[in-house]
TrEMBL record, chains A, B, C, D:
Substrates-to-products reaction catalysed: L-glutamine + H2O = L-glutamate + NH4(+)
Keyword Metal-binding: no
Family of the protein in this entry: Belongs to the glutaminase family.
Listed Pfam families: Glutaminase
Enzyme class: hydrolase
Subunit structure and binding partners: Homotetramer.
GO BP terms in the entry: glutamate biosynthetic process; L-glutamine catabolic process
Organism: Marinomonas mediterranea (strain ATCC 700492 / JCM 21426 / NBRC 103028 / MMB-1)
Source organism phylogeny: Bacteria, Pseudomonadati, Pseudomonadota, Gammaproteobacteria, Oceanospirillales
NCBIfam families with a match to the protein in the record: Gln_ase (TIGR03814), PRK00971.1-1 (NF002132), PRK00971.1-2 (NF002133)
Keyword terms, alphabetized: Acetylation, Hydrolase
Protein name: Glutaminase
Amino acid sequence: MNSILKRIYEKVLPLVGEGNVADYIPALASVNPNQFGIAIYSNKGECYTIGDAKTPFSIQSISKVFSLTLAMKHYGEGMWKRVGREPSGLPFNSLVQLEYEGGVPRNPFINAGAIVVSDMNQTRFATPHYAMREFVRRLSGNPNIKTDKVVADSEYEHRSRNAAMAYLMKSFDNFDNDVEDVLHNYFSNCALRMNCVDLAKAFGFLANKGYCMINNEQVVSEQQARQINALMATSGLYDEAGTFAYMVGLPGKSGVGGGIVAIVPNQFSICVWSPCLNKVGNSLAGVAALEALSSEIGWSVF
Amino acid sequence: MNSILKRIYEKVLPLVGEGNVADYIPALASVNPNQFGIAIYSNKGECYTIGDAKTPFSIQSISKVFSLTLAMKHYGEGMWKRVGREPSGLPFNSLVQLEYEGGVPRNPFINAGAIVVSDMNQTRFATPHYAMREFVRRLSGNPNIKTDKVVADSEYEHRSRNAAMAYLMKSFDNFDNDVEDVLHNYFSNCALRMNCVDLAKAFGFLANKGYCMINNEQVVSEQQARQINALMATSGLYDEAGTFAYMVGLPGKSGVGGGIVAIVPNQFSICVWSPCLNKVGNSLAGVAALEALSSEIGWSVF
Amino acid sequence: MNSILKRIYEKVLPLVGEGNVADYIPALASVNPNQFGIAIYSNKGECYTIGDAKTPFSIQSISKVFSLTLAMKHYGEGMWKRVGREPSGLPFNSLVQLEYEGGVPRNPFINAGAIVVSDMNQTRFATPHYAMREFVRRLSGNPNIKTDKVVADSEYEHRSRNAAMAYLMKSFDNFDNDVEDVLHNYFSNCALRMNCVDLAKAFGFLANKGYCMINNEQVVSEQQARQINALMATSGLYDEAGTFAYMVGLPGKSGVGGGIVAIVPNQFSICVWSPCLNKVGNSLAGVAALEALSSEIGWSVF
Amino acid sequence: MNSILKRIYEKVLPLVGEGNVADYIPALASVNPNQFGIAIYSNKGECYTIGDAKTPFSIQSISKVFSLTLAMKHYGEGMWKRVGREPSGLPFNSLVQLEYEGGVPRNPFINAGAIVVSDMNQTRFATPHYAMREFVRRLSGNPNIKTDKVVADSEYEHRSRNAAMAYLMKSFDNFDNDVEDVLHNYFSNCALRMNCVDLAKAFGFLANKGYCMINNEQVVSEQQARQINALMATSGLYDEAGTFAYMVGLPGKSGVGGGIVAIVPNQFSICVWSPCLNKVGNSLAGVAALEALSSEIGWSVF
């Protein structure tokens, strides 16, 4: 594995720096674009790394999988009356579809869907962001995972579009808590800083029938783990999910911080990271690395 | 396998007849709704059946996978400049998205996408429908597969909406041949009559790394077989693809004739059939049977 | 005029009570539906009334004309970079169009447009709602016009959809002030209570080349008065503006409180009121009364 | 009037040639862009002209008013169940709205609306285009008005988008005749060649209570004439109708051949022509000329 990892790292390295760093808030725009790391965590507990695998970055939308997991643990199948399970076919922050479909977001990985999931977690937890941070610390075995308050505050300051979505859902009676409270927690979750190793480990339960080896916990049932993977496979990479399935063939979830996690069911959880994004908002080098890895090792689930 | 099949057949039987038979053309509306069959074809060449597995039915949109396969064999990656690989997030016959996205359909399994694929095959074959019929006869080993001319003619007569899509694509310069010619062949492909056994066998190559055991032919490369499966997984069940991935976890493709094919990669190809459809146009009992099968045997790829 | 008014009043009376009172907030839902009044104010200063012409009601969207007038006085042609002058072709509270057109509302009479106009007035006035109330008191000569605080508060409480629009515009940088502040003032303007006589008089300047006879003031230029009338003619009656032009042929503006004002250029300003609304949100009896009046007297401007 | 006309002609002349000639078919693209003419026809039978007022040009969408007039004469109010009377808020050739609104076009002046009106006329007349040509010859008193067959054939060859609309309406059961037949006649109507004088005279009945002085015929009732004017006022200038009402204040109808007709009710019918178009498809110099004329003479109906 280490030699494959090295070969792929070197193959993809020339792409690092191509594309553009997310720049909608200053705190993200200032990241050094020439970083690239990979971590692969096996169901046997081995962790393979290369490059900047231990440099923390802003996990952003990858947090949506953790939020979903917390909501599924608590609400089970009941949660699906408030959010769909279908790919959206539109940019992640579109309001058009939300209006046509009566305030029920298409899936938990577009912004509107993640916000309504945050609203569910808001109802359940006294301090939702601390619950979330505690959760990812346990899953990854790293008690030092931090929230980047500068990023969280800056996201909140630029919240207009997400606020528009939240209010639109509220106008359709699909929102229970105070919009501002939910957005604060939502942005704090996005602003968690983790490195590739943290994320590969934290996602280990999805490659391992719902069981987290780090803290010996059945996080969700085996079936739920497969269901979360299915949702990632159809909706995890913004408006590139179909192409990612076609090229890589693995469930995955990306964030505008440049991280992408992917699951090889029953075998591995992977995190790649490189800050520059392609046109749809996925890490350009990250996608290339996952394509190369999957093709080399024959990992496609299909 | 036979006993599992029997158990699931009996479990699902009470649902047969629920929902509604497709009625947009008379030839489909008159089918007996109380039919239900399953065929499972293994990579070892075994075929397990139950119920009406040998009654032919109109394959309808399942033909889109065969059209795509023929186009991929000939055009390779070049075909993707004319059709996308992303889920659509809208009904299968919507023109809205086609207009916003400049006449390039989102994927080959919505109507517009299958029509543009038919346009590609029209350019390539002198008699496209006969080429297609010959192809499915070879894949299934059944030389008696017929085209239902009454259905084909009736579809053509009710072609307005599909004609609108074809002309809209033509207005965006994404159409090479005569609209009427392409529609004739497209509808003839949809009007092929096959039974569950035919379809399970004909889809065998997708469970078997692209190799068809029936006529010992490498139909497409292993990678292409996985890619076709990936496209089915993200876009194969109309606006229910995400839920199907969540519930069943297998690549699949449905048709309004009530058939659904599904692939267990490296193991089985499956065809279920029951004419009554749920609200999004998928066989109600067929989806239930695949849910039960997948859950019982633990077939989810995720 | 009095006899015509009487004849039309009696002709329309059987329609009063048909349709439905606006019920999205309790304060509006509780109004007595069986009320009906008309006031016609001539450029010679005569005022003809019949029915409940002196019963105050919630002017709602009619306030959008006053807001626009205040903004045009101050910003002149410069205001049109922030809001368009085209009919919308969609319901008054749609976000779809706002998203496609980059946060610039189509005209000042849909909600988004009126909110952005309120944002302009917020920038200009220290206490925007008091400035507005003072303005309509002066225009109508009635110093007792009040704001219905119960209605304003209830609208604010149910602000979600309007808040969504405001935040969406803010996300496109077409919003200068605090969203909550602007909405407070916007709803207070909608909650002004005026009767038919007040409104007919207050709109007199639009029938009189921009000149208000009540307080001898050139409110806007003659050209601006014609321009405001033109905007009412193309966009003043929600998604019924074209039919209103076809049937009535006069510039007009309606509100969900059941009031409609109309202008006979160079001659009359009219206010009709009856609380029950037709399907698109215009007073059912009010529209009928204006059709009858216009047809009887030959008032169509076309 | 002649001196005003001269002053405005000279004022606008520098704009002639700005913008772009319609180029979607070669026959239109080859027109000399530096042409500019105005004709004003009074209810007293006087005709004032300047510039290229006697050079024939392709009337294009101006023909939609003639088609509508023929349909209203025959079908009366019954026609409005097949086409609406509301502004569209979208480009003239959009299919989006047509799909959302179930195949009923918003008004008779967008392409879909004019095509459905042509379908009505197809039902009524044995040779619809000849009936139309005869109609405009009578209205203008010019028996030599010709159809430009090269333009008509070229439009037909590039019919894809209009064909898509027609088939989409057919799919919603809002189309009675053969799509190809109707399109042939529709394009022939668009391809009529008339000059400014022809058009000013032919539109005289709309300024004159429905009465045509040329051939002493009550073309439509006075009320219908006002209704046609109302429809032009709200929907006659593509996605610039609101701005045209704001700036010019007259009912008008434009065509991509560069012609614009406008009505001063009870006084004048006007035709301006200059081939170069602004961004929304209206004659750039033509709009400027009408703004100047209306403002100079105080013609706004508002």
